[in-house]
Amino acid sequence: MNQPQSYLSSARSDLRSEPRLVRALIIAIAVIFLTVFVVLPLVVVFAQAFSKGVGAYFAALSDPEALSAIRLTLWVAAISVSLNLIFGLVAAWAIAKFDFRGKTFLISLIDLPFSVSPVISGLVFVLLFGAQGYWGPWLQSHNVHVLFAVPGIALATIFVTFPFVARALIPLMQEQGTQEEEAAVSLGASGLQTFFRVTLPNIKWGVLYGVLLCNARAMGEFGAVSVVSGHIRGETNTMPLLVEILYNEYQFISSFAIASLLAMLALITLVAKTFLERHLDEGQLPRGN
Amino acid sequence: MIEVKNIVKKFGAFAALDDVDLKVADGELLALLGPSGSGKTTLLRIIAGLDWPDAGEVSFDGENALARGAGERQVGFVFQHYALFRHMTVFENVAFGLRVQPRAVRKDEASIRSRVKELLDLVQLDWLSDRYPSQLSGGQRQRIALARALAIEPRILLLDEPFGALDAKVRKELRQWLRSLHNEIHVTSIFVTHDQEEALEVANRVVVMDKGRIEQIGTPGDVYDNPATAFVHGFIGESIVLPVDVCDGRVRLGGKALNIAADGAACGASKLFVRRHDMQVGPAGSGALEGAVRQVRTFGPIQRAEIALSAGETVIEIDAPRDREIRTGDIIGLQPRRYRIFAAQD
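The joint structure predicted for all components is written out below.
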């Protein structure tokens, strides 16, 4: 207790860190930047949505056109997330647990939607299913509507969101290897038993993580959907499309009210993502005693 | 009885197994010993059904095992890195093999519980049954992996480098424990190892492998005392290897004839193998070889001396007992008590 304390009381208490002033400055820059670019826009969205009071807000949301857009968005998200869940699981399983020719090609193919502009993704479907497209005339003669209808919107959304689940799972499954599966098989488990009792429980947090991001993108997608939707009011407008239309028509309350729903989705996604990441960091372990 | 006949397995151009034959009697504890890349793990995985041979036969008690998948062979497999199911408790890990059985033969919950309890008692870890694998030490995990493999009452137990991932002390304990466990339950077992001490200490019979071929099969005493090939002599135990020429029953080192019998070795370039402790040290001029002592280190019951031989410009290391002191700079005579001569390959 009688040791000299002078070296402890110097202004720079820890030689390994920056001086206090520098630290404060850096933190301030980060906070200001985040406030201007993230917090402020969010506040503006909600402020505008509620600027004529709560009554006007709910009236805007219960408008038939708004309800139709919400319904369509949920429907499209449900279709694309469930299909991409199956696709992502199968693709990740094949890539992580087996060796085959063309594996690297498949991996880069999965990443394709990330590197292509969403507008191009939408345009591809116009070229395939449009009146002048490859399959357009045939589809028309059989009275099947893909473009400017729900199937086209779902297809474009599926295309844009299909990397999410696979990308979340491939590194996780590669890291886990195939030994647990081999152990299960040698203990007499069938293929399905091995998948449901060993593989799936080991990746469940990764699956949820992928689904979450996939869902957020599916509900928020604008570019690709805009190209294939046809903007038929009350029929083929998703929430992001309707936000734009209403804004262009100077219906700010309605526009921001729907935007606020998307903003809330983003906030919920963020919280859920943080929660899932913590589980993923814990190495997929159940919380033991 | 497990029988493996003419097994060939290739990975691209690399022959992992090249015409391998092996018979394992019931109740044996067999070691597959060899350096990495010798094909021992591949052989084990083929017996288990986790890999398939390109040619050859595997049979269990005369039945063709290759017609069955891994799950139908009733083989207990223990992995080097345990491969415990990380999201299940120790109890559920051991119970897994019982729970995935077809409904017609599956035991009821009470019998499963008592069987798992029995197995956990056998590996002396019943107090860990509610833990998760990540909460166990390496040695504990490997014992749980063993209990899990035994749950399905395997006809044969296969262990792939079972102690490879453990530290030296735990490894030694587990070795003795596995030995005594085998005495208790007598299940036919094959384990793979690259550690000769492990193989010689634990197994009844040792199969020495190199480059996809079996070099020798024998008891631990056999493979140590009577190595069949130059590889086995070099791989098991520490050996001194000297390049010699054999002609007309005479052995020459660096042009100088050695005073030892050729033991019927064929004419031509050969290798003389002597165990380090089989070199008898005597005064200069007393043995077949002569050399100058360059360095001596003494530990335990032996002194290890580095000796520059006068013939052939070779430096060798010998282990001599401490009853006769060797000093740096001494010129000493060396006589091999036991030695083997093999034709030099390539």
